From TrEMBL:
Subcellular location: Cytoplasm
Chief place of localization: cytoplasm
InterPro entries: Fuc/Ara_isomerase_C (IPR004216), Fuc_iso_dom3_sf (IPR038393), Fuc_isomerase_C (IPR015888), Fucose_iso_dom1_sf (IPR038391), Fucose_iso_N1 (IPR012888), Fucose_isomerase (IPR005763), Fucose_isomerase_dom2_sf (IPR038392), Fucose_isomerase_N/cen_sf (IPR009015)
Its biological purpose: Converts the aldose L-fucose into the corresponding ketose L-fuculose.
Names of required cofactors: Mn(2+)
Catalysis performed (reactions): L-fucose = L-fuculose
Protein's name according to its UniProt entry: L-fucose isomerase
Family annotation (Pfam families): Fucose_iso_C (PF02952), Fucose_iso_N1 (PF07881), Fucose_iso_N2 (PF07882)
Organism: Psychrobacillus psychrodurans
Tagged with keyword Manganese: yes
Assigned protein family: Belongs to the L-fucose isomerase family.
Record's keyword terms, sorted: Carbohydrate metabolism, Cytoplasm, Fucose metabolism, Isomerase, Manganese, Metal-binding
An MF annotation (GO) of this entry: manganese ion binding
Record-annotated L-fucose isomerase N-terminal-2 domain positions: 179-358
Length: 594
């Protein structure tokens, strides 16, 4: 029995129906409509949003409508008891702004003011947002485009979109809070992202930092501190279902057959051990390892690997691949979030993508920009279609989830789905299109197995990355685009110039002709580090909303203005240049938990 990925209870959405407090007529006439609005929103959110485990998102509604501060306090108390992580105020009418507001500075919050005119919900919305802004507690404002009749229970499409965008991002922020980032090992090859910034985790994400030395893997392997039954099952499954690819190492650098078998077995043991280190294991408790059984409450982890580990032991690619994928020998399940090279900033970006979509994430090196001319020179062929303006080679690393093969489908198109929608056929199809290649021993003296696949073309995807700048703090970059496929011979020519044992995704950003999105080269040229996290779908809008909750400014994105939703205060920093306003607003309010 393995433990749940998320330890403890999942955050709920707290719904606050606010009302005009005047008794003897006004309040009484509004009670039912207001409470109905809360019930409808709760139903809508639970029907449309799921937690990482496939369960519907839970909503908690305040016991009474909130007409003044006493009822606001009662709602706050209920929310605390019930584990509310996101606050949504709804109202069809005028209410008393600062008296009914939710003053918890850490709960992401939004107000939906019903656009009617018999009773002025939108007037309250404006008044309460002014209050939130004045008090420095950013809140999202939701106001339907078209006037509705009083008592109309429908939630208009534009309001639905905003409710979902806010709720998803709010829940993602709430799920990060209180969890840990577990650094397994330390700094990998001087990669800045693996110099874990504890202030970033604490102040922006409300997370803790945990650290273990990689020697802990050796202890647990040698003393067999893992679920031995699961290990046997995993080994048998891997032997039966995974294909080991060609060993292209030079003869003198090839590992022996015994070493290769031991690397395979160790790769599986490492997978079990890393998961136990992250979330603990009931089995370890049964075995008498109570301390180890607790794990580190880690929602995200990173594995240093290179070099001290990989110079002697198998690399972490197998472990990273399986933990990040939506299935393993136990069947389909939510992915764990594990960053290669302990790149904590990319790990957090992966977690953002995963919490917003419930799908697996692909961690990759942003390896090469191939211009149309360079491709022509090297392959003798033209890039065509979506690839015509050039391509970015996302390559490496272990942490590319197998879902990244693109062998799941909706309406015949390649997609990446939440685990509960993935079919057994799709798992089979995925495995048939992956080889586990023997690592290049020039790089990895200790051997290991890397998943080698090529992502299916034509998937809408988003790449993103958090960077950290001294004096500025965290910054997020986002590029929406598509995967493309090349003709086999072109692919091989380009792939063989690098390390062909690794997974490849050919990525093309959507260009806007401006700034960082002038052309494909400028996207690559503006990338802030060696890694990115790739998510299925165009999720730039959701990432932007989440970043605004955490006060992480976005320095480059190609998301249309109409899809961008940030707290109302952002508009107070200027409406003509939203990017500059975002920087100002994030700086002004500071990280969420500072
Ligand atoms: C084998 C090499 O050290 C790679 O792991 C390296 O290119 C990276 O992935 C750097 O991020
Ligand atoms: Mn890398």
């Amino acid at each position: 029995m393995t433990k749940e990925r998320y330890i403890g209870s999942l955050p709920k959405i707290g719904i606050r129906p606010t009302i005009d407090g005047r008794r003897r007529g006004v309040r009484e006439s509004l009670e039912e409509t207001t409470m109905n609005m809360a019930n409808n929103v709760a139903k809508f959110l639970s029907e449309n949003l799921k937690y990482y485990n496939g369960e519907p998102v839970a909503c908690v509604i305040a016991d009474t409508c909130i007409g003044g501060v006493a009822e606001a306090a009662q709602a706050a108390e209920k929310f605390k008891k019930e584990g509310v992580g996101v606050s949504l105020t709804v109202t069809p009418c005028w209410c008393y702004g600062s008296e009914t507001m939710d003053t918890d500075p850490h709960l992401p919050k939004a107000v939906w003011g019903f656009n009617g005119t018999e009773r002025p919900g939108a007037v309250y919305l404006a008044a309460s947002l002014a209050g939130y802004n004045q008090k420095g507690i950013p809140a999202f404002g939701i106001y339907g485009h078209d006037v509705q009749d009083a008592g109309d229970p429908t939630i208009p499409k534009d309001v639905q979109e905003k409710l979902l965008r806010f709720a998803k991002a709010g829940l993602a922020a709430a799920m990060l809070k209180g969890k840990s980032y577990l650094a397994m090992g330390s700094v990998s090859m001087g990669i800045a992202g693996s110099i874990v910034k504890d202030d970033f985790f604490q102040e922006y994400l409300g997370m803790r930092n945990e650290y273990i030395d990689m020697s802990e893997f050796v202890r647990r392997m040698d003393l067999e501190i893992y679920d031995k039954e699961e290990y046997e099952k995993a080994l048998q499954w891997a032997d039966e279902n995974l294909t080991i690819g060609e060993d292209i190492n030079k003869e003198e650098f090839k590992r022996t057959d015994e070493e290769k078998r031991s690397d395979w077995e160790r790769s599986i043991k490492m997978t079990l051990i890393a998961r136990d280190l992250m979330i603990g294991s009931d089995k370890l408790k049964e075995m008498g390892f109570e301390e180890e059984a607790n794990g580190h409450n880690a929602l995200i982890a990173g594995f240093q690997g290179q070099r001290q580990w990989t110079d002697y032991f198998p690399n972490g690619d197998f472990m990273e691949t399986f933990l990040n994928s939506s299935f393993d020998w136990n069947g389909k399940r939510a992915p764990y979030i594990l960053a290669t090279e302990n790149d904590s900033l990319n790990g957090v970006t992966m977690a953002m993508g995963n919490l917003l979509t419930n799908t697996a994430q692909v961690f990759a090196d942003v390896r090469t920009y191939w211009s149309p001319d360079a491709v022509k020179r090297v392959t003798g062929k033209e890039l065509t279609g979506k690839a015509a303006n050039g391509i970015i080679h996302l390559l490496n690393s272990g942490s590319a989830a197998l879902d990244g093969t693109g062998r799941q489908q909706i309406d015949g198109k390649p997609v990446m789905k939440p685990f509960w929608d993935i079919t057994d056929e799709e798992v089979k199809e995925t495995l048939e299109n992956v080889q586990f290649r023997l690592a290049s021993t020039e790089y990895f003296r200790g051997g290991g197995y890397s998943s080698d696949f090529t992502t299916q073309g034509d998937m809408p995807v988003t790449i993103a990355r958090i960077n950290y700048v001294k004096g500025l703090g965290a910054v997020l970059q986002i590029a929406e685009g598509h995967t493309v496929e090349l003709e086999n011979d072109m692919h091989d020519t380009l792939d063989l110039r690098t390390d062909p044992t690794w997974p490849t995704t050919w990525f093309v950003p959507n260009l806007t002709g401006k700034g960082a999105f002038t052309d494909v080269y400028s996207v690559m040229n503006n990338w802030g580090a060696n890694h990115c996290a790739l998510s299925y779908g165009h999720i730039g809008d959701d990432l932007i909303t989440l970043a605004s909750i955490l006060r992480i400014p976005v320095n480059m994105h190609n998301v249309e203005a109409s899809r961008i939703f940030r707290p109302s205060a952002w508009n107070m920093f200027g409406t003509d240049q939203p990017e500059a306003a975002d920087y100002q607003a994030c700086k002004n309010f500071g990280p969420l938990y500072k």
